[in-house]
Amino acid sequence: MRPLNQLQQTIVNNLIHKVTYLPLRLEGTEVIETLDYVRIDCGLPADTFNIIVFRGEESTLSQEITTEIEAFLEKKFPMAVWCWDHLNHELDQELQEAGLQEAEINIAMVANLESSSPLLRLPEGLQIKEAVTSDEIKQFGEVLSSLFGTSEEADHVRSFYSKVAALPFEEDLLSNLYIAEYQGDVVTVGSLVFAEDSVGFYDIATKEEYRGKGFGTAMFHYLLQEAQQRECKLGVLQASSDGLHIYAKAGFQPVGQFKVFENRHLLEINTP
Q1: Which tens digit of pLDDT belongs to each residue from 177-189?
Q2: Phi and psi dihedrals of 68, rounded to 5?
Q3: Range of the domain at 84
């Protein structure tokens, strides 16, 4: 495994913290951490949570990781592999030979939060708060699940956050969930993940019928303000091409990208 530079490694470390923090607190999940990768099996057939993340820039696909990929397939569990993209075409080919398909590319971005000035202007009628009750956490999961329509993935996302909602609430969690309400409906969500040297911005999503009203942008700036109030210095996130301009205006700069590979097509092929 070849090392990443410091900023890139910080982003990877925050992502690993994000994908392991809640599963480590839940029954029925399994988290394996090695020097080269982490693997999360959430106990549900959902590639939102069944994830392998490479810790560094892998030069080749190890037999150990290949075995992990095969284990998910044997269970008929969708899963995703996240790896830092350094135009390593050999790794791409090996992941494809293992049966995976490239599903998406996310731009990795960082910002010095000490110099960032969030423009928090909430649209009229929008109220944002941290999700602290069981019902609020379930509502968070409901908005995230809406990204998947009426699919089984949507059901499993709801199930996962129902498990999270059953946990006793603790102050000063290192993973904080936020919800935005509009006219009595939870319409937008977002989360912050606090690692040793960074804060990550994740899960910013809005129900389809409420998009185009600035709710997602308002949530992002609210999260920025929350992170600054906790005196976090470095912010990290992964962005789609659609959100780049919003994050760039807040001072985030691209430093690379993640590639995401999935096995879902194999499960569809093998379904009788």
Answers
A1: 999 999 999 999 9
A2: -65, -45
A3: 6-107+257-270
